[in-house]
Amino acid sequence: MERLQVEAAALEEYAEYRRIVGDDDGGKLFTPEEYEEYKRKVLPIRLQNRLYVSWRSPTGMDCKLVGPETLCFCTHRYKQHKTDYEVIPKERPICVPCRVSRCQCQSYHYVPLNGTQPIRCRCKHFADQHSAAPGFSCNSCSKCLGFHSCFTCACGQPTYAHETVVETKQERLAQGKPVGQDVPYAAMGGLTGFSSLAEGYMRLDDSGIGTPPAELAESLVTSMDHPFLKAFEGPSSSAQTISQIAGGSSATRQVSHGKHSEDDDMAYFEKRYQERLKKEKAAKRKEKSPVPSKKPGD
Ligand SMILES: [Zn+2]
Ligand SMILES: [Zn+2]
Ligand SMILES: [Zn+2]
Ligand SMILES: [Zn+2]
Ligand SMILES: [Zn+2]
């Protein structure tokens, strides 16, 4: 039992590592020092410069929110593309090129499936029989003018009328589209709907609703924590409660995290982040330990 718990904790730790690092370690696990360095370097950029990727119908509806595992026209997953930008390019559209060696994909391009099957081009060949290089020419015939599919989306519009949109948080907000919570995970694409913030990534749904539960939303409004941590904190903000009890009147309460230098912020963030990991693990352990079943009549 003890050993299983240790293994479960190690698995959870690994899963979290993978969510954050994605493929950035090139298949060779970072050392703990490299991992810390990676988080220090990448997370602030990622939180600041997240790109949202969706597949949009001509009516402006996001028919598909692209997630880390969503396949591209090039047959690689979104997470295999360049999804982190230190500085967001000025030009539009923003390109998200594939990082798989020798892949010619210049930017992530969503293509729907027909059930589990690839869809067909008007040249009658499947999507994956076409080149991922610009122009999307067919590898199996010479009459194709570039991939073009009339396959009808659930919204009633043909595939060819949709476009893959890559946009910033500000650009989405300006259109009244959901942006969800800030998360440290790699290649989140357009995912904004959390069915449970505490569970994070594994329970992410792609509904795009992105509305946290009411009590959480309230705690976010009153929380004085770092904005990133708000996304992770559960409904109870104990620090807030304690300061209210200790300070008495809320009018005299100080905003304590308003004037941090960036370094302080990161140290604070890191500390709280580690605490959260520990808490999550403890909760997981509790969940997993079997509840002793009562025999009837005992
Ligand atoms: Zn590719
Ligand atoms: Zn691609
Ligand atoms: Zn063809
Ligand atoms: Zn074709
Ligand atoms: Zn559609």
Automatic annotation (TrEMBL):
InterPro entries hit by this protein: Fam221a/b
Similarity remark: Belongs to the FAM221 family.
Source domain of life: Eukaryota
Chain positions covered by the region annotation Disordered: 245-298
Name the record gives this protein: Protein FAM221A
Amino acid composition bias (Basic and acidic residues), ranges on this chain: 268-280
Signal peptide start and end residues: none
Polar residues bias locations: 245-255
Organism, scientific name: Aquila chrysaetos chrysaetos
